[in-house]
C-alpha cells in the first residue's frame, strides 16, 4: 500500500477513538499525551512557559548520557497496522535524528510496568527522521496489535504519532447476536462514497458521539439533481434490526431525507445497482437530531454484507449505526479473520 493509500485508513492510536499514551520515560519539555491529539499540530512562536517554548508535541530533555527515549501508546482500536507517520512538525533544531516503532498484542488491561516487560516486535526498524516533516513508514506485518512503542534516538521532540490501519475486534468481547454491524470498532469499513469534501465518511462509523460538526461526514453543496451516498462493508454478514441516523450538530446543513439499502455480496455484486434492496425507505430527517428506525417485515430479515446510505440531496451526518445480529456464516467469517491475525 502506498503512503497515499494507507493514510486514508483510520488512526488506530488517536485519542478520538480511545487511544492513550500510557507511559514515557521522559517528558521534560512537552507532555506525551500530545502525540495522539486528533487535531494537526500547531505552533505559536514566542510562547514561553516555565519549561521554555511551548510545543504541541512530546519533547524530552537533552541527554547527557547514552540511551534513548520511549513512549508507549495503547491503541484505541486494536488492529492490523498498515503504516505509521512520525510527525516532527515545528521541531527544527530539537527533533530526533532517528526512531524505531515496535508493537505488541497483549490481552486485558496491562499496566505500564507489564507492557515494558512484554515481547515487542519491531514494525519500523531504526530509521532516519527529518525535522518539521511528516515522516511516513510502511508496516508489512499482518498481525493484530494492541499497543505500539515509539523509541526516539537519542532524544528530542515529536509532534504526532499516527498509526493507520484496519481495526480487528476480539470476538470474545462482542455479543454476536446484538451488535452494531457497521461499527469501525467491530470491523466495518467504508468502501466508497460520492463526496467527502468537508470530512471523511469513516467518521460515520467511528466510536462514540460526534463532539462537533467536523467529526461527522459532510459533503459539498450539490447544484444538480443527484444525491450523495456512502457504502459500508459490514463487520460480517448479518441481519439489520435498527438503523440510527444521527444529524447532531448539523443544523442548516442536515440532509432532508435518507434511504438505507442492503446488498449480500455473496450472491450479488455491490457494483451492480440491481443487487441492492431497500432496508429503510426514503425517510424525512430533522436537523441536529439522533433518529432511530426499526426495520419491519422482509427488510428486517434479509442478510446483508454491505449497506448503502443515501442522503437527499446532500449535507452532513454525524453517525450511522446498524444494529443487528451476525448470521451463522457471519460468525464463522469473523472468528476466522480474527484467528488469522493473531500471529
Descriptive notes:
It is a single chain. Helices cover 6% and strands 41% of the residues. The protein has 343 residues and is mainly beta. The chain has 2 domains: 3-167, Jelly Rolls, CATH 2.60.120; 171-330, Galactose-binding domain-like (Jelly Rolls). Strands 1, 2, 6, 7, 8, 9, 10 and 12 form an 8-stranded antiparallel sheet that branches. Strands 13, 14, 16, 17, 18, 19, 20 and 22 form an 8-stranded antiparallel sheet that branches. The chain has a two-stranded antiparallel sheet with strand order 3-4. The relative contact order is 0.15.
Please give the largest β-sheet: 8 strands, antiparallel
CATH topology of the largest domain: Jelly Rolls
The percentage helix is under 10%
Task: Please identify the structural class as seen in this structure.
Answer: mainly beta
Output the radius of gyration: 22 Å
Cα(first) to Cα(last) distance is 21 Å
Key descriptive features of the protein:
single chain; 343 residues; mainly beta; Jelly Rolls; 22 strands; globular; Galactose-bd-like_sf; allantoicase activity
Topology, element by element:
Elements: H1 3-6, E1 10-11, E2 20-24, E3 48-49, E4 52-53, E5 58-59, E6 69-87, E7 98-104, H2 112-116, E8 121-128, E9 134-138, E10 144-153, E11 157-158, E12 160-167, E13 179-180, E14 189-193, E15 217-218, E16 228-246, E17 257-263, E18 277-284, E19 290-294, E20 303-312, E21 316-317, E22 319-326, H3 328-340
Antiparallel strand pairs: 1-12, 2-6, 3-4, 5-11, 6-9, 6-10, 6-12, 7-8, 7-10, 13-22, 14-16, 15-21, 16-19, 16-20, 16-22, 17-18, 17-20
Family: Belongs to the allantoicase family.
Pathway: Nitrogen metabolism; (S)-allantoin degradation; (S)-ureidoglycolate from allantoate (aminidohydrolase route): step 1/1
InterPro entries: Allantoicase, Allantoicase_dom, Galactose-bd-like_sf
